[in-house]
Amino acid sequence: MTYRVLARKWRPQNFDQVIGQDHITRSLKNAIINNKIGHAYIFSGTRGIGKTSIARIFAKALRCENRIDQSNACGDCPSCLDFKSGSSMNIYEIDGASNNSVDDVRDLISKIQTLPTIGRYKVYIIDEVHMLSVNAFNALLKTLEEPPEHVIFILATTEPEKLLNTVLSRCQRFDFRNASVSVLLKHLKDICEKEDIQYEDETFLEKICVLGNGSVRDTLSLLDQVLSYCSDNLITEDVLNMSLGLVDSTKLKSLLTAMISYDGQKATEVFRDIIQGNVSLDNLIRGLCEEIYLLIQNSPETSDKAELMWIFETLNQDYNWVKETPLPHLSLELLLQKISLRGSFFNKSKKKVSESENVQSEKTPVETAPIEEGPDTTPILTSQPIQKVSIEKPLAENQEVERAEAETRPVDEVEEIEVKESQAERPKTWDGFLDFLRTIAPAAASNLEQGNIIGIPELSHDGVRVRLAFDSKNKVFFDYLTETEITQRIIGFLSTFFEYEVDQVKLNIDMIDTEEKKRINFQSRADIEEEKIQIENENRRAELRNHPIIKEAEELFNTTVDKVNLTSKGS
Question: What is the pTM of this model?
Fold first, then answer.
């Protein structure tokens, strides 16, 4: 039988099996029991903490015909069996990372009106929804606000800050929490008991939970990794350290003792011995910092704590530099020597601590020499004030969107000075208008770019006339923009930019048929921009294929480059 990894085998199948998210499961169960079901939900949180699992459980329970305790799916009714089949036409799981275009959203919307084949609801689970493009979000907005009664959306994301406010305001939001070490430890012990997994010490499981960083999936994956290293399902310290690249506790304490005792030579010897054991630098720094933290918490002397805090801070700050260097192992070795030699930096006497002393269990205070008062005496590890430098951060895309949403913010609420600055030196053309609109209402500009003007804006002393057209594939934008309130807002923006009174602005929004589209070679602004990007990317790919280094590599290896993948920046 094919082996199933623990993260899949022990994936929760009902609300009661979910760990660490009681605040969410309770709310969803109450919503089902009281029949207060929303039309759209956002599940946000870090990876591997149950967002998709709970979305599936919730979707299955919503459609179940014979719920257990009025909230959990029974697993045996036609709707539950339909879900188990893996090919349900009523519960759709969509990957937002790979289905993020406007066309993908249009295809989704076109299927929404269809009634479910079994049960009451059709549920759409969109994972990593923040990966949808802005245009795709705009296409989804109207449906997300007022979907058919039989449709429910569940949007899962690890980066909710990237979602438009117009999306967030249409959904009930649930923020998932990272699982605590104690919750993860209990979960691992239960699994080990059921899987007949033995361990010499409970602290071994606790280490796995700490490395899991609050993620249930990551924690179970680490346990799988450990089990793949041992042959008899017995987790020992050697198995744990070798499989996960952890530091042997004895060597770790020996290294820390040498550092605290100002013995740089010994610290180097122990460090090199540790590295020979295939220990990752991340795990070494993590282990040292955890041990130092325990010493700080148990040190009775303020001076000792100050010195330990300096060591802790130096390790964390300088390790960022270590990771960026070409030779991180050598850089870390020098960093440990610097910490060991701190006595000479701070005019401190060197007093060695016996290696036999147990740094962790006995919590030995750091020995310090008395400081003589005098003009030449340098205080030990004095706290220097840190000057804070203000750095102006670039405005994130979602922050720009927050400045103005076309569908929620009328023209008269835009600050007058902001509008005047946006109008400055912009040509009175359609391009100039869209450029102006992007600065104060980017969502409105994006909606208009799904169509295009026919001809050019007609400007006269009587006013301005604009004809805006959409083809059939962009009908959702046509329908939205032709709503009376939205049309009036767009007219307000036109009035502000072209400097005419509102009653002097004539805006016609039309749908063009296929024949006229061909006759005038009509393209939406978004399609034109997309075509330009594709041409630029293809030129970039051709440039990379013909790069001298690539040609030399092809000749050297007697091969050809058949595919060039560009990043979002086209590099």
Answer: 0.58
Under 8 Å between Cβ of 288 and 304: no
CA distances from 89 to 59, 82, 116 (A): 13, 8, 7
Range with the poorest average pLDDT among 326-335, 368-377, 543-552: 368-377
Token representation of residue 536: 């630029």
Q: Tell whether the model's pLDDT for residue 255 goes beyond 80.
A: yes
- Which residues are CB-neighbours of 192 under 8 A, at least 6 positions away? 198, 199, 205
CA dihedral 79, 85, 86, 92 (to 10 degrees): -20
In three-state secondary structure terms, 156 is strand
CA 322/CA 331 separation, integer angstroms? 6
Q: Give residue 97's pLDDT.
A: 83
The set of residues, in sequence order, having a beta carbon less than 8 Å from that of 23 and lying 6+ positions away, is: 177
| Residue/partner pairs of 561-565 with CB below 8 Å, 24 or more apart | none
End-to-end CA distance of the chain: 45
> Which helix (DSSP H) or strand (DSSP E) does residue 441 occupy?
none
Q: Give CA–CA dist 208/187, Å, rounded.
A: 12
SS3 percent helix, strand, coil of the chain, rounded to 5, is 55, 10, 35
Single-letter residue type at 210:
V
The pLDDT tens digits of the residues spanning 165-199 come to 888 998 999 999 999 999 999 999 999 999 999 99
Helix locations, 261-301, DSSP H: 264-276, 281-298
Structure tokens, 75:
């697993």
Residue 64 and residue 68: Cα distance in Å, rounded?
Answer: 9
Greatest Cα pair distance, the chain, in angstroms, is 95
The pLDDT of residue 202 is above 80: yes
Q: What is the mean pLDDT of residues 414-440?
A: 70
Among candidate residues 318, 335, 248, 322, the one with its CA nearest the CA of residue 283: 248
Across 171-180, 287-296, 306-315, 395-404, least confident range: 395-404
Residue 136 vs residues 158, 161, 367, 388: alpha-carbon distances, Å = 18, 17, 63, 41
Q: Token pair 């039989």 is at which residue?
A: 150
> Which string of DSSP letters, residue by residue, matches 356-375?
TS-HHHH-PPPP-PPPPPST
Q: Return the half-sphere exposure (C-beta side, CA atoms, 13 A cut-off) of residue 173.
A: 15
Nearest Cα to 155, choosing from 41, 33, 276?
41
Number of helices and strands in the chain (H, E): 27, 11
Q: Among residues 223, 162, 239, 147, which one has the least CA distance to residue 190?
A: 223
Strand partners, 95: 127
Q: Is 455 left (phi over 0), alpha (psi -120 to 50) or beta?
A: left
Helix (H) or strand (E) holding 466: strand 463-470
Residue 398, pLDDT above cutoff 90: no
List the structure tokens of 32: 């089902």
Between CA 258 and CA 269 the distance in angstroms is: 10
pLDDT for 419? 53
544, 550 in Cβ contact below 8 A? yes
pLDDT at 26 over 70: yes
Residue 490 CB partners (closer than 8 Å, separation 6+)? 406, 444, 448, 481, 507
Strands (E), 158-196: 172-175
